[in-house]
Amino acid sequence: MLPRLLEIIRWYVDGTDHGIKVDDDGLVSCGARLTWMDGDVDGMPVTPRNGKPCEVNALWHNALCVVSALCEEAERDVWFGEYIDRVRENYWKFWNDEFECLFDVIDPHDESPRPNQVIGFLFELKNNHKSKNNQKNIIPHPKKVVEFVQENLLTLRGLRTLAPWYRGYKGRYVGGWNDRNIAYHQGSVWVWLLGPFVKGYTGVKSTTQLPKKLLLGFLPHLEEAGIGTVSELFDGDEPHIPRGCISQAWSVAELLRCCVEDV
Known about the structure:
This protein is an alpha+beta fold. It has 8 helices and 13 strands. It has 2 domains: 1-140, no CATH class; 153-263, no CATH class.
């Protein structure tokens, strides 16, 4: 698989479709509607996120580190090593001093307080690449990020996709197709986001008390919508009524992963 992985990295560096390209700072830019927040109304994205999304660049950093480790194991040249250093040096651009969390997107900057900033916590970066600053975790002020998300986005059913005090927040996933698409990533609670949150929380807090409470809290839900399974999403507003499909693979998968890896 290594030649194919190297080819993928080359295409990111050189640029490919939909405005996807690595900038001079080592960070990935992309066009609108290319992340998991892909809801649209009348063909227009509700959350465009064009520019440099925070979680895309955390994923990019992880990919570079993994392929770097594979190259060294295979005694292949790590020609892209400088990009690992560039990402680590420039990921600090995502830090938002005003909110004390990460910008959701930069270039152009989007301060929307969203949960994408915790996705980088999913990766335990174990690689032999010698960076200039010896840093593995690229997220700036990780404890502050976790505390911001806990205070503003966390519910008993997952993370809100937008803080309830921010403009454009939609607390109920109801109505017709367009109404629900507007609320899809503008406040609705997604279960799978508990996975990266729990990873970050246990990493910076060194306790599993809250994660255990969150996971055990899903037991009543197993008889609430889809019997024995977990719904796609919930209302951002209390009482957090289950919405979307009654059984969602990534909702189930991330809760199970938390039980196995983190709690």
